[in-house]
Amino acid sequence: MSGHRIPGPLCGTGYEPVDDGTSTLWRTPAPGPLCSASGPTSEAARRWHLMSVPGGFPPKSMSLGPDGVTLLKAVEELHLKPYDDQTGKDIDQWVPGATIGFGHLIAKADWATYKDGITDGAADALFAADLTPFEAVVGSNITVGLQQYEFDALVIFAFNIGERGFKSSAVVRLINDPEAVTAYANLEAAWKAWNKSQGKVMKGLDNRRRCEWRIYTVAQYERW
Q1: CA 20 to 30 Å from 141, out of 118, 131, 134, 199?
Q2: Catalytic residues
Q3: Domain containing 52: what range?
Q4: Which pTM does this prediction carry?
Q5: In this structure, is residue 91 part of a structural domain?
């Protein structure tokens, strides 16, 4: 399993390989001290510990998990009528920031389809279609195994910064190779550097990056 990392920052304290390379034969790490603690965080830790495997899962085989879907939908918020994502106001004619559903940008050519609004089912279908390329970009650019919570954090991150931004990011380079030389001191700094819009630090982006980082490091799915 060379090149893959040990999972379970909360609960995984060690692991015992059954052989040298068959991930399905690896045993789950013994629970760490947080697993035996009380409170909601420890309950989440135990649940994600059970879903983690040493070396992680192949990213190309993964999709955003239920907790990730719930959080991302909550963050993007459901709008059944078109609105301008720059102002948050409902619109009755197309503008460059025209949006509907869970953050779906409306192309000018598609305005006639969405101008009168959509149903909940159509919003879910749009969300699933919009999500697919971001699951794919994480799966095709990350070359090490990931736990579900790590994959979820990366998809939510990519969903916000875009496919091109994700592919070229220092985050991808540092996950694939922790020794890679970048402009940042570590992975956390590289991740949280994506907090600016038009060169200015935005509190909303700052909070979003912190949320994603908590998911990635401690499997804590809480919106800001």
Answers
A1: 199
A2: 76
A3: 1-56
A4: 0.79
A5: no
